[in-house]
Design a protein that fits this description.
Number of strands of chain B: 17
Largest sheet of chain B: 7 strands, mixed
Strand content of chain B: 15-25%
Strand order of the largest sheet of chain A: 1-2
Largest sheet of chain A: 2 strands, antiparallel
Number of domains of chain B: 2
CATH architecture of the largest domain in chain B: 3-Layer(aba) Sandwich
Number of strands of chain A: 2
CATH superfamily of the largest domain in chain B: Type I PLP-dependent aspartate aminotransferase-like (Major domain)
CATH topology of the largest domain in chain B: Aspartate Aminotransferase, domain 2
CATH architecture of chain A: Alpha-Beta Complex
Number of helices of chain A: 6
Structural class of chain A: mainly alpha
Number of helices of chain B: 14
CATH topology of chain A: Sufe protein. Chain: A
Number of domains of chain A: 1
Strand content of chain A: 5-15%
Oligomer: heterodimer
Chain lengths: 147, 403
């Protein structure tokens, strides 16, 4: 049984607390997590998959399997890849309802705004928004069938 | 020798920690920090002297006008202008170039005429010329740049001709640090009958700049890149050239007489200074120039050049680091890339260690395209930087490059 969204969030908060607010270790850790993200097939790295509002290039694709949303992503920068890998860790293979009803409190608790600064924070918000939009679209398909 | 610790004492902003490390500020090509005397002058103006300049008969107006004109006089001496009327205050380098492109373009450019710029220009010395060339039916030519980041002067010689009306060129590249031979370039342009504008934004605070020696017709720079406040720039122009140009903006100060039938314009420099300027900032620009004058440009340059060489040679010896631009004549600015780390990541990792550098295209997208890259990491130095800071920077880059 996959742990609940909030259990994963608590896990992330725990891991970051070990870094003791050291900016360099935190960034290295984020980059390391990005490195663990499964590679995204080159064919998905196209304009239409780019998350708008990010300084770096972020490609995000999703699919809907057995009532669960599957996210895949990549970025041209390691830090951004690490950031989206955190979101994927929390939201991957969840039902649209789980995604839409969850509150991402870990972002605030690990001091993300301070780590990534205001420009990247906007990009990070764009990623969250895009993932929620995908969840919403799949929820509509589920309820109303394909158009 | 200059006393660096004593200089650093004058810059309050430098004495702070960023992310648990002492701040190392290597983003001086974007803007320099301000010495206490500049901050004090700005505060003093608003506290005691605030008033609109020119045309006032009361005491405060007189004080403000006097302070404003004193800066003009010092700025003129700073670049060795023949007279203070040749110094026009602008918002900054960008406005200075727009002013010349607009006023010169509307009066002197005709269909088929040519303007020459270079491939290492800042967007602010590209776009205004593109706009006016398009409007006037003129052609914009671009001096190409070698792999080392140097201008190909043979190509420039071929481009020059009777149709060339203006050559607008950067003195020191804000991305590569290349120092261009502006005196020679000006001489060649004049032989072809063209006028010359020099963008001295990255040179005037670091290298000797003498407008009479260069013999350029126009020269522009910003106060905020040479320890002064933001919102102030200088446009130098030879008297004859400035008098020949029509005004840029209409409004107060720039007129002699306004009649609905016909308005006559003021003399230079006021003809080009419409509207209330940034008075306090202009006044506070004076102590910034005095700061530079007290140290002397030769001493400033020799210190900064030492840091530059230390950084360039140090970066070159780190495996996985690529320098962008290696001109023989270069100064104060070094651009680089790490093979394994994206430039944005490099910038953030350096910031995590308290080091401020700039990452991106530095408003020189055509130059980045020339090198086939998205941007660079850029470290740029000012007189308050130290050898120890460069050591720490190199050690940090090495740590990131070899992770």
């Amino acid at each position: 049984m996959k742990p609940a969204i909030n259990e994963i969030q608590d896990e992330i908060i725990e891991e970051f607390s070990l870094l003791e607010n050291d900016m360099e270790s935190t960034i290295f850790y984020i980059m390391e997590m990005g490195g663990k993200l499964p590679p995204l097939d080159e064919k998905y790295k196209v304009e239409e998959n780019i998350v708008k509002g990010c300084q770096s290039k972020v490609w995000l694709v999703s699919s809907f399997e057995d009532g669960k949303v599957i996210f895949k992503a990549d970025s041209n920068t390691d830090i951004t890849k690490g950031l989206i890998s955190l979101l994927i860790r929390v939201w991957n293979e969840r039902t649209p309802e789980e995604i839409l009803h969850s509150e991402l409190y870990f972002v605030e608790r690990i001091g993300m705004r301070k780590v990534i600064g205001s420009q990247r924070s906007n990009g990070f918000s764009s990623m969250i928004k895009q993932m929620k939009l995908y969840a919403l679209a799949f929820q509509n398909i589920q309820h109303h069938g394909r158009e | 020798m200059i006393d660096i610790p004593a200089i650093r004492e004058q810059f309050p902003v430098l004495h702070q920690e960023v992310n648990g490390h002492p701040l190392v500020y290597f983003d001086n090509a974007a803007t320099t920090q301000k010495p206490q005397r500049v901050i004090d002058a700005l505060l003093h103006y608003y506290r005691f002297d605030n008033s609109n300049i020119h045309r006032g008969v009361h005491t405060l107006a007189d004080r403000a006008t006097d302070g404003f004109e004193q800066t003009r006089e010092l700025a003129a001496k700073f670049i060795n202008a023949a007279e203070k009327e040749e110094v026009i205050f602008t918002k900054g380098t960008t406005e200075g170039i727009n002013l010349v492109a607009h006023s010169f373009g509307r009066s002197m450019l005709h269909p088929g005429d040519e303007v020459i710029i270079s491939a290492m220009e800042h967007h602010s010395n590209i776009v205004p010329w593109q706009m006016i060339c398009e409007e006037r039916g003129a052609l914009l030519k671009v001096i190409p740049v070698t792999e080392n980041g140097e201008l190909i002067l043979e190509e420039y010689a071929r481009q020059l001709g009777p149709k060339t009306k203006m050559v607008a060129l950067v003195h020191v590249s804000n991305t590569l640090g290349t120092v261009n031979p502006v005196r020679k370039i000006t001489e060649m342009a004049h032989q072809a009958g063209a006028k010359v504008l020099i963008d001295a934004a990255q040179s005037v605070g670091h290298l000797p700049v003498d407008v009479q020696e260069i013999d350029c017709d126009f020269l522009v720079f910003s106060a905020h890149k040479i320890y002064g406040p933001t919102g102030v720039g200088v446009l130098y122009g030879k008297r004859a050239e400035l008098e020949a140009l029509p005004p840029y903006q209409g409004g107060g100060s720039m007129i002699r007489d306004v009649r609905f039938e016909k308005t006559t314009y003021n003399d230079i420099p006021y003809k080009f200074e419409a509207g209330t300027p940034t008075i306090g900032e202009v006044i506070a620009f004076k102590p910034a120039i005095e700061f530079i004058n007290e140290l002397g440009k030769p001493a400033i340059h020799s210190h900064e050049d030492e840091l530059f060489r230390q950084a360039r040679e140090g970066l070159q010896s780190i495996p996985g680091v690529r320098l962008v631009g290696q001109a023989a004549e270069a100064s104060g600015i070094v651009s680089f890339l790490l093979e394994k780390t994206h430039l944005f990541d490099t910038g953030m990792l350096l910031d995590a260690r308290g080091i401020a550098i700039r990452t991106g295209h530095h408003c020189t997208q055509p130059l980045m395209e020339r090198f086939g890259i998205e941007g660079t990491c850029r470290a740029s130095f000012a007189v308050y930087n130290t050898k120890e800071e460069v050591d720490y920077f190199l050690e940090s880059v090495e740590k990131i490059a070899t992770r």
